[in-house]
Amino acid sequence: MISGYSSAATLQQLQRKLETLSNNIANSNTVGFKSRSVSFSDVLSSEYTNQPNENRLTPHGLRVGTGARASLTSLSAAQGDVKETDRALDFALTEPSLFFTIATNDGQRLTRDGTFYFSETAGGELSLVTNSGETLLNENGAPIRLPASTISLRLEQAGLIAELADGQEQVIPTFGLTQIGRPQALEAVGENQYVYLQEDAIFGQAQANQVKQRALEQSNVDLSQEMTELISTQRQIQLQARAFSFSDDMAGLVNNIRR
After folding, report:
1. Tens of pLDDT along 37-54?
2. Beta strand 45-48 with 107-111: parallel, antiparallel or unpaired?
């Protein structure tokens, strides 16, 4: 019966790895997406010490495992490839520990997706927003605000330059970037966004060499590696399912013998 419990426990945890791999593969073309990996550890082992010790060539005691568990799901902070887009409102971060800071209904969140759009505010100004409408914050932690006549943006060392319809230019505060000391501690909350612990974050001003305009960071998913892991995990699931079936058959035989 131990083997049956072990197989059932491991099957459940392998399903978690399968879901993680499937999510990575599904987001292989998502801008700024960071892949995750699952690590396993033994649940617990029992040791039988009542075996004969005379003339043994192996260590005394027989250790029997009771399955594996997914002990850690870690985020890969590796930099994705940067692809030029020739779109003025596309921005790629060039350092893996940095994130754009956005304001949502649930508080501040982080993202590596630098695809932004103009959105008119209630006051008649323009703001920069994400695909899902969250507002991008500037270096002061306030929403980025642009004159209503802004037709394009330019990133320079001095900050963001708003190009106006009348040919004039206006300097506005640049992006507010958050540096994360432990990217593995970030929690994904959907929409390619993350929540973070305040003690892990350093908020500051974006430098010109940290952001590339007219470009986007691609997903850091290694598709060939993920597919290989997916096939391997599916085979492990098949093996554990077969072991569980054998254990069930053996238990049935034992019950029949007792009758």
Report:
1. 887 665 545 455 555 666
2. unpaired
Q: How far apart are CA 159 and CA 152, in angstroms?
A: 14
Q: Enumerate residues 6+ apart whose C-beta is below 8 A from 139.
A: 173, 174, 175, 176, 204, 205, 206
d(CA 12, CA 48): 27
- 118/129 Cα distance (integer angstroms): 6
Q: Tell me: do 92 and 209 sit in the same domain.
A: yes
Q: Which domain holds residue 15?
A: 2-51+63-77+221-258
Q: What pLDDT digit, counting tens, does each position of 213-230 carry?
A: 999 999 999 999 999 999
Residues 184 and 249 placed together within one structural domain of the fold: no
How does pLDDT run across 155-182, given as a tens digit for each residue?
Answer: 988 789 999 999 999 999 999 999 988 8
In a domain, 58, yes or no: no
pTM: 0.78
pLDDT at 182: 83
Number of separate domains in the chain = 2
- CB-based contacts of 79: which residues, under 8 Å, 6+ apart? 94, 95, 96, 217, 220
Closest CA to 33 of 190, 181, 180: 190
Distance CA 194, CA 173 (A): 24
**Spatial contact of 187 and 194, defined as CB atoms under 8 Å apart:** yes
Residue keyed to tokens 């700024």: 32
Look at residue 88 and tell me whether its pLDDT is greater than 90.
yes
In this structure, are 14 and 113 located in the same domain?
no
Per-residue buried b or exposed e for 154-190, using 16+ beta carbons within 10 Å of the residue's own CB: ebeeebbbbbeeeeeeeeebbbbbbebeebeebeeee
